[in-house]
Write a structure and sequence with these properties.
With 216 residues, the chain is an alpha/beta fold. Helix content is 33%, strand content 26%.
């Protein structure tokens, strides 16, 4: 059981889809793993259980960073937990594997506070994803890899194209259909009016994209 206040993202379908992709990918011996937008630290814990020798977890939310630190410590995991915006705090650092479950839900443009910061990501759902794609080549060691989960609503083709244009090999490696949760049900009319879903649509496809740094 994970320790977390109600406003820290609760691990759910996207978390577990990414965790399964991590298990299937396997980890190289002695891997240093980065967990971007860690939330409760669930994926950082999964990485250590999967064989990582070191884990760095990052979240912009102070409550999430504290939750991740506590959840790692009570399991005897000495993860490095950093509170801050990933684009600022990770400059110049490289990892063998990057795990990312960033905010990706399309949302009307407004200032988001509290729990909504964990999922709302601008009108196209790409506020965090585009920044992460731009950073990704610099985050990966030679032959390093990344696993990024998000919804089909937030344009996986854009993720694939940006990663490939940056010189990485990229492909969808996992997919899972889930019913809309409360957030998407509550904004279904807005999503439909903006052409992001079909009228009456009540489910979304989640995808995991793998990107590989190919040593030249």
């Amino acid at each position: 059981m994970l320790i977390r206040p109600p406003w820290v993202y609760r691990p759910q379908s996207d978390t577990w889809l990414l965790a399964r992709a991590l298990i299937e990918a396997g980890l190289p011996r002695g891997a240093h793993v980065l967990d971007v937008c860690t939330g409760s630290g669930a994926l950082a814990i999964a990485a250590v259980r999967g064989g990582a020798s070191a884990v760095t977890a990052v979240d912009i939310s102070r409550s999430a960073a504290v939750s991740a630190w506590l959840n790692c410590r009570v399991r005897g995991i000495g993860a490095e937990v950093i509170r801050g915006d990933f684009a600022s705090v990770l400059s110049g650092r490289r990892f063998d594997l990057v795990l990312a479950n960033p905010p990706y839900v399309p949302a009307p443009e407004r200032e988001h506070r509290g729990a909504a910061r964990a999922w709302d990501a601008g009108e196209r759902g790409r506020g965090a994803l585009d920044r992460l794609c731009r950073m990704m080549p610099g985050l990966l060691n030679p032959r390093g890899a990344a696993l990024v989960v998000h919804s089909m609503l937030s344009d996986p083709d854009s993720t694939l194209n940006q990663l490939r244009d940056a010189g990485l090999k990229a492909a969808i490696v996992a997919r899972h259909t889930v019913p809309f949760g409360p957030v998407l049900r509550g904004r279904a009319d807005w999503l439909a009016s903006n052409g992001l879903i079909e009228p009456g649509q009540d489910s979304e496809d989640l995808v995991v994209i793998r990107a590989d740094h190919i040593r030249k």
